[in-house]
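subagent[fold] <- orchestrator: predict structure for attached chain, return tokens only, no commentary.
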Amino acid sequence: MPEGPEIRKAADQVEKALLDKPVLEVFFAFDHFKDYETLFRGSEVLKVETKGKAMLIRFNNGYTVYSHNQLYGKWYVRNPYNYPKTNRQLRFAIHNEKKSALLYSASDIEVLRDEEVELHPFIVKAGPDLLNDHVTEEELVDRFKSSRFHRRRWTALLLDQGFIAGVGNYLRSEILFTAGIHPELRPIDCSENQLKKAANACIELMWRSYKHQGITTDLELAHRLKAKGAKRNEYRHWVFNREGQPCRVDGSEIIKIKAGSRRCYYCPTCQSKES
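subagent[fold] -> orchestrator:
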């Protein structure tokens, strides 16, 4: 599943293709949206926002199209009516004279009046989006300590979109590693220093991943490894998807576990329970 940085990057591409250009045609795959197709014809896209893993395309006619990629959704931005060769199913499309923005495979799509957006069940429940909302480290630490969250295990919290919107599986492992927190711990088990490191990691890694195509390691390290011929998946992360490989910090073997039915990776020494 794409995470917050990937959805924000896709939103940037969609916005660049559609902003302030009259819509020639909108296509919805689902019958219950067909009546809206003529509504959007001739309108213009004002902006494209994200809330975690959800995208909001706001039009100048008072309507917003909400979409969530879920596991398999994927956006393509192409020349007008130039469809990619893919086995995916086209669910939603916006065409203008210059570009087409095409959403494939996603089934979570809704047409909302602008005033309905904040009442949408996902938006209502979503936690802060660190790529769009101004959130300080201090505010995040306070959130970690709150009675709502402080007794829940980090591995569950970081996948809860009501905790921090946009964090997914790879960011979960990378945040915990960078903060030096063992996957079995809870915020209440952590020192003040660990909580501050976790807050910093949440913000820094979200932005680093967004700005640098999913890279969460130290950028100098990534550049060195790339210069030596390493492939992207060999320099992208600290621990995620690196089971059995040496930790980049102390050489310990990276361990993979299942947490919430999804894989999680950690270094047993950098993230010792006793640290």
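orchestrator: received. Logging for downstream: The chain has two domains: 4-125, 137-266. Residues 137-266 form a domain with the Helicase, Ruva Protein; domain 3 fold (CATH 1.10.8.50).
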